[in-house]
Amino acid sequence: MSSFDIQRPIVELPDQNPDPEFSDEELVWTDAEEEKIEAWKEQYPEDQAAIMKVLWLAQEKFGYLPPEVIKFCGETLDMSFSQAYGVATFYHQYYKEEKGTYVLDVCTCFSCQVCGGYDILHYLEEKLGVHAGETTDDGLFTVQEAECLGSCGSAPMMEITNGVYVHNLTPEKIDDLIESLRAGEVPSFTSMTLPQDEEELGGNRRTDVESTETYQTQPRAEHME
Amino acid sequence: MPIVTIDGTTYEYEGDQKLLQFCLNQGIELPHFCYHPAMSIPANCRQCLVKVGMPKKDRETGEVELDDDGDPVIQFFPQLQASCTIDLQDGMVVETHRTSEEVEDAQTDNLEFLLANHPLDCPICDQAGHCPLQIQAYKYGPEGSRFEFRKVHKPKRVKLGPRVTLDAERCINCTRCTRFTDEISGSGQLSITNRGVKNYPMTAPGEEFDDPYSMNTIDICPVGALTSTDFRFKARIWEMSSTPSITTTNATGANCHYWVRDNQVLRITPRQNMKVNEYWLPDEDRLVYNKFNDNRPDGPHIRRDGTLAGANWQQAFAKAAALLGSADPERILFLGSAHATVEDNYLLTQLADAVGADAPRYIPHIEPGAGDDWLITDDKTPNAEGCERLGIQPIDEQLVGTRLAEGAYDLVYVLEDDPVGSGLCSADDLADTDVVLHYYNTTNETLPRATAALPAAMVVETVGTYVNQDGRAQRVRPAKEIQGVNRTLMMEMGTNREDEHGTPFDRWHNDENRINCKPSWEILPEVAKKLGEDLDYPKGPKQVMDEVQSTLEAFEGATYDAMGLKGTQLEDVEAGAAA
Fold first, then answer.
1. What structural domains does chain A harbor?
2. Cβ contact (<8 Å) for B195 and A92?
3. How far apart, in Å, are the Cα atoms of B159 and each of A89, B27, B132, B210?
4. What value of ipTM does the predicted structure carry?
5. Contact B205 A83 (CB under 8 A)
6. Is B301-478+513-569 a CATH 3.40.50.740 domain?
């Protein structure tokens, strides 16, 4: 497993004159989408507040958000390009470049880090043969390092393509996960339960989900030993 | 009147005020970066933290509780507050870093955070010497830093636009620049991109920061992140002198500082005047400094045997006087100038009167559509209003142009303008006409046709008054030296370092860059003297202005003392009434 090695932290300047990925003909909303956007505009005192939902809609439609799509979203709401760009770059959930089918956001923030977040990340990197931030050659997986995803209790954890969380990660669990993702099976939503709930409620405090997983005593990270 | 107690001193205040601004108004310094009085308050730098409390009131009776000594018990907010967002309330008690160790520690720690990824490249940074971050880090910052890991490196030398260069590493994300483009200039061209340690202000991909007011972001940047592409690495701040004056690019009369080193103007920055330009200055006002340094004349010239040849000043005055004396007064055209000061135009009026010619008129320089209803105006001259108030009317360009072409004048006396360059007439039209020309630059297109060419001092070298389009009379002061000794200019010269002035060590001192020119208020009386007329004002333009303001209603009250640094508002007068 790779060593815990801090790279020289460099923030690159994004390409200032990228070639557009989408043509002007492609950058249009359908009537149904227009309707949605109008409804969102109604929800806020100012139209521009709907930018996050519009960006999200665009990401679902185009797959990712190259500059021309961000500009298009801004224009939809009479917002300057740079302001829309500022919003889009703030959130890592908006993909500014094309990603793999499955984006694996491995949390390496405080709790996950001490419970082995980096071990999991490096294990994934080695298994898939890519570095964090890169996509595998078959276009299936993108591995990313994420800041806190709000599930410290089940550390270390990861999120799959802005969707379901996978909790209490171990190398074995990663192996199974990758295998099932390759087969096209995305794990279902799993609710976390507290150990004391196990008996009383059949382990499931939520009535709306099938599967549950119980909080565990966290393992000590390999790199801490 | 409501009161607020700051560090044990009680102050009265009126209306709704923010604590930070109130402290600054009272001369109580509080460190801050993101707060700017003209813009919204995001409170994101967290540097202006103070301890704020209110007298404790009994919940049931509503009476103020007193301690054993009979003083009110003060209940402090559990956390320190950013003073920029706190509204003053009656009875509020504030402790700043001067009295509270907690506040002092908080400010120190906050600076440690701000500096965590700051490159600390002050030795090569343009902002060094007038950098709020540098100054406040010295005053309030920690001795060292506990962040002993590699700093995050961000893009350097990014050309945001034609005039602004970004060094993202130095940025502390105060958002002053993005708020400026959003709220003040309205172009919305800048936005903070990315998040956490990676964020910095940037334009959207493929867009340029070409806002006509873009360089204001350089002034308000509290660190060296936004620097002037033009001024970058040209001079250190402590090598220059700055002279409070006004810009002459247009009719706004925006207040500015001229920064001079080696007797050359190197940059122009805004000077606060809430009645004129507030805190701002358009880019077009700043990038004109080269005209003060380049293509400047080398002494007076007079025409001998058909060619312009160098002469001394006495010869030039004599030549101008001879031309004026010999010409038929009916066939002399006096052209005043909206580029020249009120004093110079007034003296020209006196001279025209003395020789019995028609009153001077001036050439308007209006570019329709160039203005923006803010600080950029259609009128590209600083003193058209001043001319009008003196009774100097704009010429009918077509009429005068035709008459010049017809050879209706024997002599044209031009004060600090360029009839050929402005399109009033062609150079050939002046072939048989004598021209006395007061001019600034050798690029003046009338110069090749001049019979007597008298180099005039520019706004950075003279003393005088300009009246902006709103009728505000404002003084200018000399920022750089010209050749020769002129007591008035010496007296008015900047007082940046009085002990240095006139010595080989002062910042203006570079004999090579001293221009051989004279202010028109010195030239015109000399020419009059050669004509045998008395136009003498021994106390210089100050005395001229005293006379103007006491004799002309349109200038009432505009003495040098009254104008001071911020100018004085003149009464509105009926057009032409002044004449």
1. 31-90 (1.10.10.1590), 102-224 (3.40.30.10)
2. yes
3. 20, 38, 23, 11
4. 0.85
5. no
6. yes
